[in-house]
Amino acid sequence: MDMDGNVVKVLKGIDGSPLISTSSHDLICVANYSYSYANAQVIDPASGKVLMDCPKQQRTEVCTFFCSGRSAPSLTYKVVKVDDGSACKVFTLGEDTGWRVSEPPKTSISYMENSPVTVNSVMYFLETQHRRGYTLHSFDIESETWKKTISGSRKPMGPDVCLAVLMAELNGALCMVQTERDHTPMTNNRCANIWILADLDMGTWIKAYTIPMDASTDYCRPLRVTHGGGKLIFCNTFYAERQEIRAYNLHTEACTSLCKLDRTMGRIALCNLQLDRLLSQPRFSVHRS
Length: 289
Known about the structure:
F-box-assoc_interact_dom; F-box-assoc_dom_typ3; F-box associated beta-propeller type 3 domain-containing protein; 5-stranded antiparallel beta sheet; Quinoprotein_ADH-like_sf
């Protein structure tokens, strides 16, 4: 779809649940979960072709989650599968014919919705530590090794209650988004605080944006800051029933609706269909769950 909600391209032959990994200049990876097996497909959004169909494996684990991205400097595209938070397997596009067993995480990673995400050839897996905040586990795609574990952005205390937390890639940076509710009497105000990872080695986070949310908002997913930094494009999900693409003006602090979806479509993300000569608007990809 374009930013007005018009269908630009339909990708067929895709069998999966929510869109799990995408880049505005790269490929799309879709996970397929069932009661008996789990696998993933890699799709080129420009041609609509399925470039890689990872072999299905019997799903005996309690939870399985996938992540994908390109390594640096080799630029090979890989899909990583983590089972039960303690077993790691890798599938390389154009090289592997099956899953390869890789180095396991240094500590078990508990499943958390909206995790993981790839930024600058590093995969990040998020888990909550209840009152202690959040922990991020990082996996280097090139060396296929697990790196240091860092703390996430602070967990709200006092009158602000964190309703949801997720990670996202925003203009080439890793960010954490916390949807929070203010428990001030007679109000149900909500907002989304967006934190940017400023220093990976030091684990330093900076609160970059605070966006007011509707009372029915489940969570907010940032998509892109426009050229010049004037607007923040994001997707709102309302009680898991509908979604809306909005633009937040960073100068006037006003939100404008760009596109409304009557039902939850899965994950929405920007992608590049390489149709710039025909279309001047940015596009976003939608995968039905």
